[in-house]
Design brief:
five-stranded antiparallel beta sheet, three-stranded antiparallel beta sheet, 8 strands, homotrimer
């Protein structure tokens, strides 16, 4: 069995944003030499998500509006968590909807994707450095 | 290490619906010969989900109503994504709540389930052929 | 390839609550002897979640309020599932938001976590014994 590990680092310029990680994860897979196995990609921070969806900017705007409706940032005082000195309670909730991680099949040395699947990093509390973990096992 | 891969294909007759995949995934496990390992089951399309819950029609009706409340289909014009010519932005959101994938333990040649766990395909933009990927690794 | 399996059992005193599983999963990893691999932790019951977030009681109070807003317990009669004699339809919905499972990388014999990642069991229909499955593969 082979295993592979890499951290990818990001600094989102705004509080929230979506970033296509697919090319970086494909590069990891190439480095790993794994042909058959499983690839885990997870946010290492608990105010961010890794998810699979469409690379379409209109949809990303819809996600932003929708998440803000389901788990509004403001008022910060609406959240007990923000009494600890934080202002990011909403980011913990948004990340819960979008998910922490994806597991992707690796087949014949490639990410085994459907036609429109792309891996995204969803940042909900940016403007600081944060990381994503890529871990693969297989052979 | 053994690995196994199969695509399952569906054509949902309506826009939305839930389908119990468990027998097909059990058949895949039987074909794989894997006794100990992990089984990934994921939607290959980004307007559908794979999730684990109860095989109870009342609950499925509750899911349908609840998802339509959290991410309504109409009006189509409420979503930027639908300006691209699509009408399925709500399906991308519904799938985000229900999830893309499940990972199930394989123990002693069986899906290692709790008493009521069943694997479902959740279609949110049907009336066309769509696929689910089953990938297993183990030995 | 090594594999490891253990059931963890809980009896939540109230209908809902969050419990930090991290020490128990770390103990499982120690028992497994696995140094590199993947660790699956999943609820075996379909009215509970396993998720990764912050060990902060204010945030947990926010989660409780937020989930109750998105998928209210009452009135029980609002849900078709509750016509079967159950009263826990809301628990199935809450669990869908928070997720069934997490997959965690194992690196150098440790759970490969970011700085604040902790594994939680989220109970949404407690006051009875329920179980979580830990399954690891690797070497």
């Amino acid at each position: 069995m082979k295993s592979y590990r890499k951290e990818l680092w990001f600094e989102a310029p705004k509080r929230r944003g979506f970033f296509n990680l697919t090319p970086q994860v494909e590069q990891c897979l190439h480095e790993s030499g794994i042909r058959e196995g499983l690839c885990l990609v997870n946010a290492m921070h608990i105010t961010a998500s890794v998810f699979i969806n469409d690379d379409e900017s209109g949809l990303h705007a819809d996600f932003e509006r929708w998440l803000e409706k389901l788990a509004p940032e403001n008022p910060h005082s609406a959240y007990d968590h923000n009494r600890t000195g934080e202002d990011n309670a909403d980011a913990h909730l948004k990340r819960s909807i979008m998910g922490r991680e994806v597991v992707v099949a690796v087949t014949a040395g490639k990410l085994d994707f459907g036609p429109w699947e792309r891996i995204f990093y969803g940042e909900f509390d940016g403007r600081r450095k944060k990381s994503v973990l890529v871990k693969m096992i297989g052979e």
